[in-house]
Amino acid sequence: MRESGHLEVVTAEAEELRLPLRDTAPDTQPLRSSAAALARSLAWAPGRRQSGAFSDRCQTLSRVFKPLLAAPESQPEKSVSGDFRLLHKTTFLLEAELAAAHATFNLPTDLPQARARNGAVVPRIAALAEDYLATAEYRFSEASFTNYVQGFQEVAVLKMAELWALIPVLKLVLLEQIAERGRRLLQDPTGSYSVRDQIRSLQDIRQTSWKVVIEPLIMFDHVLREDPAGAYSLMDYDSRDLYRKKLVNIAERSDCTEMEVASTVLALARQAQNEANDDPRVTLRASHVGSYLPARHRRTHLRDCFGGCISFDVSRDFAGVGAGFDSRCVVAEFTKRRSNHELRGDAVAACADSTQVGFF
Questions:
Q1: Ramachandran category for residue 15: left, alpha or beta (phi over 0 → left; psi -120 to 50 → alpha)
Q2: pLDDT single digits (tens) 170-196
Q3: Confidence category of residue 166, pLDDT binned at 50, 70, 90
Q4: Could you tell me the sign of the dihedral formed by the alpha carbons of 39, 40, 43, 46, in that order?
Q5: Measured between alpha carbons, how far is 43 from 113 in angstroms, rounded to an integer?
Q6: Which of 124, 133, 178, 357 is the right S-S partner for 114, CB 3.0 to 4.6 Å?
Q7: Backbone angles phi, psi at 122, to 5 degrees
Q8: SS3 of 83, please?
């Protein structure tokens, strides 16, 4: 029986994986070029959101890993390659990551689908994760990942949910690579199949501070940071994330993208900043981007203002935001921009009468 908590096992595993430091400044051009080419090649698949692709891949992975995880126990240590020994010493890591993948992808995912180069309809981030790791030769680093995603988003902007979902998908792709190379090791225990890079990358992904990596990649966050009141960028991470989630909820229930919602919110804040007001505090509040996210515990007839672009019950999803402007402000502005007409008079009044902003 293996001793999962034994100090020698942990130490040996760490020594086995100790590699020279990777280049902290990767060649960005191949990464960006590959990312941009992939983004251009993916054709959007409208009406296709729910997908069990990841769940199916996890099931297949379990079947492949079953003999793989058991085999190292029966092989004499001196008769196998370094790759085979490493596979043995990282069994606990692989088992844990496989279980985590099953837990993450147990249910169908609701993510944008795209038609890949081979004609298959897949979650867009599946194609992205596979291409990134292949381009990076399955050597993950924060710098290479950031450059790749930036290159992709120069052509096609990813949703915030996609960025966060990339983390478990990267792990899934690496596990699949390890399983394939491990299968070859079962047939040739003395062979070398570069398993070390995939296992090292799996560990690096586990240890990455993802909040620091993902936040700068959220494109609409850059728009919100132009907040005329200067408040958004001074908030702590959790407060900014709360605002981002509220904005995403608006986009999910409308025919607008996250970038369009953020741009509209910013336009309203700038408009308020330029309007004359006797009380500078009112102007400051009105010029904060958070003011145009739906208000706390306020239920409004959004459908009348939005012109059918958003579901009626959206306001119930926004309890807890510290902003006080009526959500009809944003909704009416969307309607105006979509139809190229003037703001409804009642929506303008709602904006003017709602001046309580929790942040200030």
A1: alpha
A2: 999 999 999 999 888 888 888 788 889
A3: very high
A4: positive
A5: 9
A6: 124
A7: -135, 160
A8: helix
- Domains present along the chain, CATH in parentheses: 7-217 (3.90.1200.10), 220-353 (no CATH)
The stretch 231-243 carries a mean pLDDT of 94
Strand, helix or coil for residue 203: helix
Cβ atoms of residues 334 and 306 within 8 Å: yes
Per DSSP, the residues of 170-186 read HHHHHHHHHHHHHHHHH
Q: Are 139 and 174 in contact (CB under 8 A)?
A: no
Taking residue 200's Cβ as centre, other Cβ atoms within 10 Å add up to 21
pLDDT at 342 over 80: no
CA distances, 151 to each of 36, 38, 165, 213, 336 (Å) = 6, 10, 18, 15, 33
Strand pairing category for 113-115 and 109-110: unpaired
**Residue 140 host element (H or E):** none
Rounded Cα gap, residues 5 and 285, in angstroms? 55
| Closest of 293, 308, 333 to residue 253, by C-alpha | 308
Grouping H, G, I as helix, E, B as strand and the rest as coil, residue 119 is coil
**At residue 81, what is the residue type?**
S
Reading the block at residue 360, the tokens are 């200030």
pLDDT 10s digits, 75-95: 556 677 888 888 888 888 999
> CB under 8 Å to 22, separation ≥6 — which residues?
139, 141
